[in-house]
Amino acid sequence: MRSLSAIDKAFVCMNLPYTMPVERAASAVLDFKPKQVYPYHYRGTEGLSDVDKFKTLVNKGNPDIDVVQLNWYPR
Q1: How many C-beta atoms surround the C-beta of residue 58 within 10 A?
Q2: In angstroms, rounded to a whole number, what is the distance separating the alpha carbons of residues 22 and 67?
Q3: Residue 37 to residue 7: CA distance in whole angstroms
Q4: How many angstroms separate the first and last alpha carbons of the chain?
């Protein structure tokens, strides 16, 4: 995933314990630099991953990446 290029929209899951933690997901996004990234599938066995932290990490590393946060888990 880190070697991808010319990506317009990326969907990145952060669902511990099955996928990446927030920090690794943000690091991967910063490597392949999509124009927009949508964090999804972030509800795990221990609750929700911190998508606000993900957005902060991505935008701190590259403010040109648009992190789009959708309400995937309405209450």
Answers
A1: 24
A2: 13
A3: 10
A4: 32
The pLDDT of residue 45 is above 90: no
Strand pairing report for 9-13 and 36-40: parallel
Using the CB atoms, write b or e for 16-46: b if 16+ within 10 Å: eeeebbbeebbebbbebbbeebbbbebebee
- Give which of 52, 43, 37 is closest to 18, Cα–Cα: 43
Question: Residue 32 corresponds to which amino acid?
Answer: F
pTM, two decimals, is 0.92
CA 17, 64, 60, 66 torsion-angle sign: negative
Residue-range domain boundaries for the chain: 9-67
